[in-house]
């Protein structure tokens, strides 16, 4: 596994967008699509073109310690950044794909400088009730291929982890600090013991 993305590939998609005439390009990614509890988070980041951030990579390929170390670096390096979330109740009321799209568009809309183009991680840009409305390009495994998306993946993941640590204080019986809401054996054991909390996604609780 590479410690960071190859410099020659790092800015390929941003460069292609610039060649098409776009000038302010953001990367966008989400975190927390799969957990049984808590919000889905998204982040949007505009980096100075060509900037090097040592160790930058898809957040899933980094240790928690490395993500935490990169979190303030990305925020300090970015021209601007924003984080948004959609809570469990809205996920239940709509669907997780729509919630992911809404969170990403909310993050883009919250940027201090509005981009004219967005690089979106994945191959989906709309759900039943929400869509990416900023002009954009979807990139499969974009968090491993684009500097901007990788930066967004780190902000989304770490922001969600921090939120779930706060939820662990509010609902200590579920041990959110250990699993961040994902469907681990421990989490299912606590759910069977205590039942769902207000931050659980009821539509995800199929195996109780």
How would you describe this structure to a colleague?
The chain contains eight helices and five strands, in the order H-H-E-E-H-E-H-H-E-E-H-H-H. The chain is of the alpha/beta class. It has a five-stranded mixed β-sheet with strand order 3-2-1-4-5. Helix 3 packs across helix 6 (147-170). It starts with 6 loop residues before the first helix and ends in a 14-residue tail after the last helix. The model has no long low-confidence stretch (mean pLDDT 94).
List the helices and strands and how they pair.
Blueprint lengths: L6 H4 L1 H8 L5 E7 L8 E7 L17 H14 L2 E7 L1 H6 L2 H14 L7 E5 L14 E4 L7 H24 L5 H4 L5 H10 L14
Parallel strand pairs: 1-4, 4-5
Antiparallel strand pairs: 1-2, 2-3
Helix pairs in contact: 3-6
Features:
single chain, 208 residues, alpha/beta, five-stranded mixed beta sheet, 8 helices, 5 strands, globular
The major β-sheet equals: 5 strands, mixed
Mean pLDDT: 94
Beta strand %: 5-15%
Low-confidence stretches: none
Global morphology: globular
Give the strand order, joined by hyphens, for the main sheet: 3-2-1-4-5
In DSSP terms (H or I, runs of 4 or more residues), the helix count works out at 8
Task: Summarize the structure in short.
The chain is α/β, with parallel strands linked by helices and 208 residues long.
């Amino acid at each position: 596994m590479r410690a960071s993305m190859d410099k020659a590939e790092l800015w390929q998609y941003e460069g292609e967008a610039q060649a098409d005439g776009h000038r302010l390009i953001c990367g966008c990614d989400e975190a927390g699509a799969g957990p049984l509890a808590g919000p889905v988070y998204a982040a949007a980041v505009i980096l100075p073109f060509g900037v090097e951030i040592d160790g930058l990579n898809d957040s899933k390929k980094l240790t928690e310690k490395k993500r935490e170390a990169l979190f303030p670096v990305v925020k300090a390096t970015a021209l601007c950044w924003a984080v948004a979330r959609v809570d469990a109740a809205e996920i239940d009321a709509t669907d997780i794909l729509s919630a992911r799209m809404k969170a990403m568009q909310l993050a883009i809309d919250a940027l201090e400088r509005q981009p004219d183009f967005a690089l979106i991680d994945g191959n989906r840009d709309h759900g039943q009730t929400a869509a990416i409305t900023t002009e954009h390009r979807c990139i499969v495994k974009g968090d491993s291929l684009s500097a901007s998306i990788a930066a967004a993946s780190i902000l989304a993941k770490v922001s969600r982890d921090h939120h779930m640590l706060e939820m662990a204080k509010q609902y200590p019986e579920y041990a959110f600090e250990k699993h961040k809401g994902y469907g681990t054996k421990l989490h299912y054991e606590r759910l069977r013991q205590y039942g769902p909390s207000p931050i659980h996604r009821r539509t995800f609780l199929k195996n109780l």
